[in-house]
Design a protein that fits this description.
Blueprint (H helix, E strand, L loop, with lengths): L3 H18 L6 H22 L12 H26 L6 H5 L1 H31 L6 H14 L7 H21 L2 H18 L10
Helix pairs in contact: 2-5, 3-8, 5-7, 5-8, 6-7, 7-8
Length: about 210
């Protein structure tokens, strides 16, 4: 059994040191190597140490999930549409209207090569590995959201940090309730794809 001390050091290295280091200017190839090595380590720990099985959880409450997700999406749609309209009207739905093929390509790549790996790391791995370190569920979810926001420091944008913190709260709550990487990945993909669609993608690193 892995010691508490080891887990704390591991958490600090993976979720604090590495994301902060990515804000420093050095070779992108080294950053890529660190990222790939870290992801490989996480998958190894999930499979071999934590005995996690990559399978769809049985008895998922799809109805409750969709009701909650679509309600939150409606609120997000209203707020973000007004925000883009007020701050940068030209960007509103610009990629969807002017570059529909790029829009579809980015949605696909983002969903499968960005969202799912993020949820494996920040929800599946994080919850499985570190839940026992916290006695208070609210504190655990808060810390998860803070670290998820920290992973987006490289964008150097305060609004991105706020959005990813709020998203982190949503995703942590969904995973805590459902224990499903699939459901939380779907939710994450829906909100992220909407932000790109409405015209807020550039600040999140999407091409425009």
């Amino acid at each position: 059994m892995t010691s508490v001390k080891y887990k704390i050091i591991e958490l600090f290295l993976i979720f604090v040191i590495v994301p902060v280091s990515f804000t420093i200017s050095y070779s992108p190839f080294i950053k890529l190597g660190i990222g790939l090595a870290g992801f490989a380590y996480i998958i190894y720990i999930l499979l071999k140490v934590e005995n996690e099985k990559f399978k769809i959880a049985p008895n998922l409450n799809w109805s409750a999930f969709w009701k909650g997700t679509l309600l939150k999406l409606l609120v997000i749609i209203i707020i973000t549409t007004v925000f883009v309209w007020v701050t940068d009207k030209k960007a509103l739905f610009s990629v969807l209207l002017n570059k529909p093929q790029l829009w579809l390509f980015i949605l696909f790549v983002y969903t499968f090569l960005s969202v799912y790996p993020q949820e494996l790391i920040y929800r599946t791995f994080f919850f499985k590995r570190y839940k026992s370190l916290f006695k208070n569920n609210n504190a655990f979810i808060f810390i998860n959201a803070v670290l998820f926001a920290l992973a987006h420091l490289l964008f150097r944008n305060t609004l991105v940090i706020i959005l990813t913190f709020l998203g982190g709260i949503f995703f942590a709550l969904t995973y805590h309730k459902t224990k499903s990487t699939l459901l939380v990945s779907i939710e994450h993909a829906i909100y992220g794809c909407w932000l790109f669609t409405v015209g807020m993608g550039q600040m999140l690193g999407f091409p425009s």
